Amino acid sequence: MADTNVFPVPESWKKSAWINKETYHEMYERSIKDPEGFWSEHAKRIDWFEPWKTVKDSDFQGDIRIRWFEGGKLNACYNCLDRHLDKRGDQVAIIWEGDDPSVDKTFTYRQLYEEVCRFANVLKAQGVKKGDRVTIYLPMIPELAIAMLACARIGAIHSVVFGGFSPDSLADRIQDCDARIVITSDEGLRGGRKIPLKANTDEALDKCPEVDRVIVVRHTGGDVNMVAGRDLYWHELMKDAPAECPPETMDAEDPLFILYTSGSTGKPKGVLHTTGGYMVYTSLTHQYVFDYKEGDIYWCTADIGWITGHSYIVYGPLANGARSLMFEGVPNYPDFSRFWQVVDKHQVNIFYTAPTAIRALMRQGDEPVRKTSRKSLKLLGTVGEPINPEAWLWYYNVVGEKRCPIVDTWWQTETGGILITPLPGATDLKPGSATRPFFGVQPAIINQEGQILEGACSGYLVMLDSWPAMMRTVYGDHERFKTTYFVQYPGKYFTGDGARRDEDGYYWITGRVDDVINVSGHRLGTAEVESALVAHEAVAEAAVVGCPHDIKGQGIYAYVTLVSGVEPSEELRKSLAEWVRKQIGPIATPDYIQWAPALPKTRSGKIMRRILRKVAANEVSDLGDTSTLAEPEVVEHLIRNRMVR
Ligand code: PRX
User: Fold this and answer.
1) Least buried of 247, 326, 355, 384, by fewest C-beta within 10 Å?
2) What pLDDT digit, counting tens, does each position of 268-297 carry?
3) What average pLDDT is seen over the chain?
4) What is the pLDDT of residue 604?
5) pLDDT at res. 530
6) Is 80 exceeded by the pLDDT of residue 171?
């Protein structure tokens, strides 16, 4: 494999970083041997109104109980804003860069505090109380962070829905958590294109009669339909709202937010995160993984609609009093230099993005990068999917000019924060490896039977014990939480990822081993795409698998059996792709649709996905064991007509 390439920690980093090799080993060891001692020390980085009674109370057996810092009282918003006012009230908290390069805006900690308090008062005036769910469907504009923090301030549970999701997906997420209020904007802007968020919301709300209030941010100024008695403008409500609002006292285990994510079965799950452990863990990882130092300008390019944005644009950085950049646009607008122009414009020091973006930019050659300075950069990061060594090296050599370590951070919506990652002053880097566990994290690799493997090995990635930012349950469905993560391998948290560990103890994530696909770092359940397809009148049956894709990491490959009497055509192929896009959102648009007169099934009627994955990947010379196939000729037909060769 590629691990002959090792990039040692630069001398300067050994001296300057928060954590070096020695401290990493010492601290890691202590975090495992004495978790109570370790975490009670590190929890002091957060301001508590009242101290906790128990540091850790977790059990991966039986009913699954995960509790951290129980009895402790705090407020997440207070930790992100109020406590910074004395020291850095006039320091920038959020730098917002618009889709249009001529548009930007900054908020100091004091300004952000005032906006958040105002909006918290607006929410209260609308009757929102502690524990209520608030659905936020906004583009990457400052109001998104303001709305989240305002919810946290009054103890309401936010559920942010990515602006790229369709009205149906939004409706499902509103219904699942029974939100009565939705915050949206007239339109979103991405790469110069307008996204009709309010119109989407209107369509979603046809299915959500319980929602009686919609607050609309005027962003593009585009025409929208305002429903009398239901819809109100953000700016009008904010006009008279007072800029002071006392933070609600929350228990460490009170919910902070719900974020929906795809699994291998059924509809998306509402991953529930709570307050105390999440704040401790996201702020600690933000400081150590990115080696954040006072004054650094930090930019995570993720959308706040995903966990990365929650933990590493909003909560982690702001809890640390950081300057966090928030970007509305896309990497290729107005041109392929945009990321680096923004880096130069705002003098970004730490830059965190996804492998899919790196691969897309790499394709455009070095020139769009080289024509910018990037001298301010000191550290690079990636997240969301495995990074291929070629892309890693390009990122390192061309973007970072061999000067910036790369932290390849492995984690999940469920984990709340980064679990496996290099620390730039402590970890020698190997391109493509997420390297080692963070403090308090106990990964293991198991085989199919659930036995823990030692030394260099490969298998399934599990966690043996909890860490503070771990999800606590699936909102409203604890049973699903148990069966999804703890039943297959009892006593262990099953990540759904495959991994290899090398002789140096480095982890190499190989990707999902369940029916989840990772398209451009976005998680999608194959079952979701399948149910969208079969909802179309021309479709009798569908099976969806991931296939290798140069830029997206994985593409979506659908096998479709049409109802009898319907003839396949290019036109139908296009309209099916469009249909899925409308049902779920653009990220779910199939890359390939292959007509399948029948699907390969076992004699007991189970679809043999393993074979479908092989055909989609054009690996048809070795299909593995096909002895249980009911009708071998079905596979031959699929192979003959495969879309990728
Ligand atoms: O397969 C892993 C992949 O992304 C999945 C989690 O997706 P999501 O919950 O959407 O969160 C993404 C951002 C935290 C994981 O199960 N993944 C994430 N980071 C990496 C990764 N795969 C390889 N290397 C990574 N650094």
Assistant:
1) 247
2) 999 999 999 999 999 999 999 999 999 999
3) 97
4) 86
5) 95
6) yes
Q: How many CB atoms lie within 10 A of CB 240?
A: 10
Q: What is the ipTM of this complex?
A: 0.99
**Do residues 512 and 498 touch, judged by C-beta distance below 8 A?**
yes
Average pLDDT over residues 135-154: 98
Q: Is 397 inside any structural domain? A: yes
Q: How far is the CA of 513 from the centre of ligand 1 (A)?
A: 12
**Claim to verify: residue 221 and residue 316 sit in the same structural domain:** yes
- Determine which residue's CA is closest to atom 11 belonging to ligand 1: 412
- How many Cα atoms sit within 13 Å of 116 on the Cβ side? 30
Which of 500, 535, 560 terminates a domain? The answer is 500
The pLDDT, as a whole number, for residue 263 is 86
Q: Which atom of ligand 1 is nearest to the CA of 522?
A: 10
Give, using CA atoms, the residue closest to atom 25 of ligand 1: 410
CA distance 58 to 477: 19
Å from CA of 507 to ligand 1 middle: 13
CB-based pocket (< 6 A), ligand 1: 261, 306-308, 383-386, 408-413, 434, 495-497, 509, 511-512, 518, 523
In this structure, the residue with its CA closest to atom 24 of ligand 1 is: 386
Instruction: Please give the distance, rounded to the nearest whole angstrom, from the Cα atom of residue 410 to the centre of ligand 1.
Output: 6
Q: Is the pLDDT of residue 454 over 60?
A: yes
Domain that holds residue 574: 520-641
400 and 486 in a common domain: yes
Q: For position 4, what pLDDT does the model report? A: 61
Do 472 and 555 belong together in one domain? no
Report the separation in Å between the CA atom of 529 and the middle of ligand 1, taken as the mean of its atom positions: 19
Closest Cα to atom 4, ligand 1: which residue? 384
pLDDT tens-digit readout, 345-386: 999 999 999 999 999 999 999 999 999 999 999 999 999 999
Q: Are 100 and 201 in a shared domain?
A: yes
Q: Are residues 494 and 556 in the same domain?
A: no
CA of 164 to the centre of ligand 1 (A): 19
Does residue 304 fall inside a structural domain?
yes
Ligand 1, residue 418: give the atom nearest the CA. 14
Q: What average pLDDT does range 552-577 have in this prediction?
A: 97
* Pairing of the two strands 379-383 and 350-353: parallel
Domain count, the chain: 2
Domain assignment present for 505 = no
Same domain, 157 and 228: yes
306 CA: nearest ligand 1 atom? 10
The answer to whether the Cα torsion of 232, 234, 240, 246 is positive or negative is positive
Give 289 Cα–ligand 1 centroid separation in angstroms: 16
**Looking at ligand 1, which residue's alpha carbon is closest to its atom 15?**
412
**What tokens appear for 451 in the block?**
């036995």
Q: Is 124 helix (H, G, I), strand (E, B) or coil?
A: helix
Q: Which residues are annotated as a binding site for ATP?
A: 384-386, 408-413, 497, 512, 523
Can you tell me the distance from the alpha carbon of 298 to that of 349, in angstroms, rounded to the nearest whole number?
6
In a domain, 404, yes or no: yes
CA 411 – ligand 1 centroid, Å: 5
Give φ, ψ of 157 to 5 degrees: -100, 115
Q: Of 466, 500, 534, which one is at a domain's C-terminal end?
A: 500
Question: Is the bond leading into 422 cis (omega within 30 degrees of zero)?
Answer: no
Same domain, yes or no, for 494 and 534?
A: no
Ligand 1 atom 22: the closest Cα is on which residue?
385
Which residues are known binding-site members for CoA? Answer: 190-193, 308, 332, 520, 581
Long-range CB contacts (within 8 A, 24+) of 332-336: 332/191, 332/360, 332/361, 333/99, 333/190, 333/191, 333/192, 334/101, 334/192, 335/368, 336/361, 336/364, 336/368
- Note whether 286 and 422 are same-domain residues: yes
**Nearest CA owner, ligand 1 atom 7:** 412
